[in-house]
Amino acid sequence: MRSQEDTVKTAANMCLKVIKMYEWLLNLYVLDFFVDNHWIKLPMSWQRCFGDMDPKDLGDIITGEKSKSILPLSFLALLKAITCLNIPRTGYFKYKILNQELEGNIGHPKLKNLYLKHVKLKKRHEISLMSDFVYSTAMKSECNAVLDFGSGLGHLVRILNYKYNLSAVGIEMQTQLTEEARKLDLEFEYTAKKHLTDECMSNLLRPTHCNVTLTSLDQLHQIPLPNNAKRYGLIGLHPCGDLGPLLIKHFVKSDKVKFICVVGCCYMKLSCNSDSCGYPMSRYVRELDNSLTYVSREIACHAIESYCQKLCRGDYKDLKVHAYRAALEKLLVEMDPEFKHMPIRSVKHTNDMSFESYCEAALQHSPLKSLQTKNVEEELKQWKRVVVLYTLRLMIAPLVETVILLDRLLYILEHGIPCAIYPVFDPKISPRNHIIVGIKS
What we know:
Layout: H1 4-21, H2 23-26, H3 44-50, H4 55-62, H5 73-85, H6 121-140, E1 145-149, H7 155-163, E2 167-172, H8 175-192, H9 198-202, E3 208-211, H10 217-220, E4 232-237, H11 243-253, E5 257-263, H12 283-286, H13 294-299, H14 304-312, H15 320-335, H16 355-362, H17 377-380, H18 383-414, E6 419-423, E7 434-439
Parallel strand pairs: 1-2, 1-4, 2-3, 4-5
Antiparallel strand pairs: 5-7, 6-7
């Protein structure tokens, strides 16, 4: 029987081979669509098939609906490869907390909604599931303490302390967020006093918040641990860039860290192929042709499920803004090549927005006072092709994320530690929805 490590190696290798074959497509910036004539870079069979295709039909195809068109074999092969190689993105983690484990103050029914006060809907979804997952992992690893990196306003730390009775320390780079987190703790306790006895209040485990900017493993040893914490876990809900890999390395190298639960984010900010790199981490992937460009890592952070949902509903007219931006880029480059990729104001498209009004809003803070907008009428007629090209790129993007996650998984496995990847969150709500979990025996 093949080992988990061999299976992961095979998957990572195959993903990289597919990415290399279609790197030319992943690396196409949408704003250069007209400047560099991106459409003719597609295979001729793809141009014929998708040239007049409604983006809704392409959305249906990607989500598994039967096509009304005869699709190129190369496209069908690519779609099949992506489907087979991608780490599943639909959540299946369900953990039922035993009622007897949550009796008393931490499980008081009138405090249930208090944990989610001041929290946006996306974050509510994430911290509710993440806290359950962290609690179950802590119980399996016999830990009663966790360090939460990138804790922000402390919403997750607050749940872990008050509700699950885990000693949690929130580590955040921004002092202002830490100060606000402490205020929210006090607000929580002020309301809790109305429902809990004095004894319950005195027994509450209170969160700890501290400010640290992490750049190396050495700094992790300087972080104050919860009282009497001999065994603890590391958690990170969307730590940015190299922070995720830094936590994984600390987990592997420190005897005191017994588990890790980390959700990736901001892959484009990873340092690559350097001594302190965030990618690749594993010995195996380092030996492969492993390069992932900034553009490919950036699009891997986009939301394919909600985007395809939008296409399938036929609700994509606002995506015309991509064509507007590409047409504006062509005008700017024709005016002066030095204007290529110049910063402009981000503008949301509305159904009645003309290209002229878009340009006026986009260039509002630029030194350009006038722009001739009549030279791109033919280009603007192709706006659906811009949407189709972007959709084709987005279709491949999950493979890039898969490689990054498998590389992190391999790094942990290479050190003899059991680990797995779980798609815990709903990808339509939280696109970066995979938790890497490792537990030392």
